[in-house]
Specification:
Elements lengths: L3 E10 L4 E3 H5 L6 H8 L3 E3 L7 H16 L8 E5 L10 H9 L5 E5 L5 H14 L5 E9 L9 H4 L4 E11 L4 E8 L7 E2 L11 H5 L6 E2 L1 H23 L8 E4 L4 H11 L10 H4 L6 H11 L8 E8 L3 E8 L3
Parallel strand pairs: 4-5, 4-6, 11-12
Antiparallel strand pairs: 1-7, 2-3, 6-7, 8-13, 9-10, 12-13
Helix pairs in contact: 3-4, 8-9
Bound molecules: acetyl coenzyme *A.
Acetyl coenzyme *A binds next to helix 2, helix 6 and helix 8.
């Protein structure tokens, strides 16, 4: 027997501190005009020094559970999707498990770059549909400021910090309709954090060479993204048996407004029906999609019963999309 899965609660946690393009003008050779025209980003949020992924994840998870009206003890699994975990191990999800008192939950992290949340929702859905679990927290959390070189204008204008969590539960109606995830590992070198893993353990030398920060080949990632997002949506639509005309809203990963406009155009979706938060939050990696979903739910751009596609791309290179019927 196949069970149905749906989103029954959602929460976010966004740091209060704002870093504007004007602030960045005082840090690197850039301009508000360049950043807005090339990316659409106006400002982003930066977490305090003492805040880590598990702190934001805990706050967002509590809000999602509260909305769903369940007890933390009823959570069966916690998945944190992140490229900026508290530390390499233990999993940030295990720290969150303890923080929220989800004493009956298994916990692990997923590393799929900015596509992390799409991967997390896909994994959770399988566990629900098979009947293995009933309530799963999927938390997309990244604090990219912690791995960003604020002397590198190629990357530091793009990234911000934030977190979004959903509770995915066994539901009567089908809320998560279909999923598509894919990777192209031949592009792994285009987006990476070179040092600190088993390939290049951290040393004084790696720190001096600034290899503990994000490295990105922007133009290559851009080329990949404008192809990958429409492809993921098209494959998902084919697989689901839906057609694009029955899609009410699109929530893409928030890396660059030009990538989003290009994808929307290729798919024939009006920008009026596309969620955008990058102007105020920049690229929050795994958090961008759930935070945009939350904000467009709260400001009523998304209504109960809407068919929504979430689509992302990121380090790996990975990409993917999920089709949901909004139930809240
Ligand atoms: N301010 C001013 N000038 C800049 C800045 C800046 N912040 N950054 C780069 N430039 C310069 C470059 O040095 C270059 O100068 P040059 O021609 O003298 O060499 C010029 O601007 C143009 O650079 P391009 O790289 O051609 O600029 P482009 O239009 O491609 O925009 C950008 C760059 C915004 C990075 C774009 O390539 C992009 O968005 N790529 C995708 C990035 C992305 O999506 N990342 C997501 C993944 S993140 C994750 O998974 C963690």
């Amino acid at each position: 027997m196949k069970y149905n899965a749906g989103i029954t609660g959602i929460g976010i946690s966004i740091p209060k501190k704002v870093l504007t393009n004007k602030d960045l003008e005082n840090m690197v050779e850039t301009s508000d005009e360049w950043i807005v025209s090339r990316t659409g980003i106006k400002e982003r949020r930066i977490a305090d020094e003492n805040i880590a992924a598990s702190d934001l994840s805990t706050e967002a998870a509590k809000e999602a559970i509260l909305m769903a009206g369940i007890d933390a003890k009823d959570v069966d699994l916690i998945i944190v999707t992140t490229v900026t975990p508290d530390m390499l191990y233990p999993a940030t999800a295990a720290i969150v498990q303890n923080n929220i008192g989800a004493v009956n939950a298994a916990a692990f992290d997923v590393s799929a770059g900015c596509t992390g949340f799409i991967y997390g929702v896909t994994i959770a859905t399988q566990f629900i549909e098979t009947g293995f679990y009933k309530n799963i927290l999927v938390i997309g959390c990244d604090l990219l400021s912690k791995v960003t070189d604020f002397t590198d204008r190629n990357t530091c204008v793009l990234f911000g910090d934030g977190c979004g969590a959903v509770l995915i539960s066994r539901t009567e109606e089908k809320g998560i309709i279909d999923e598509y995830i894919m990777a192209d590992g031949s592009g792994a070198d285009f987006l990476s954090l070179p040092a600190g893993g088993s390939r290049m353990p951290s040393t004084i030398e790696t720190v001096n060479k600034r290899l503990h920060y994000t490295f990105m080949n922007g133009p290559e990632v851009f080329k990949f993204a404008v192809k990958a997002m429409p492809e993921a949506v098209t494959k998902l639509i084919e697989k689901s048996g839906f057609n694009l005309s029955s899609i009410d809203y699109l929530i893409p990963h928030q890396a660059n407004i030009r990538i989003i406009e290009s994808a929307a155009k290729r798919l024939g979706i009006s920008m009026d029906n596309v969620g955008i938060t990058l102007d105020k939050y920049g690229n929050m990696s795994s958090a961008s999609i759930p935070v945009t979903l939350y904000e467009d739910f709260k400001n009523k751009k998304i209504k109960k019963g809407d068919n929504i596609i979430l689509v992302g791309f990121g380090a790996g290179l990975t990409y993917g999309a999920v089709l949901i019927k909004w139930m809240l």
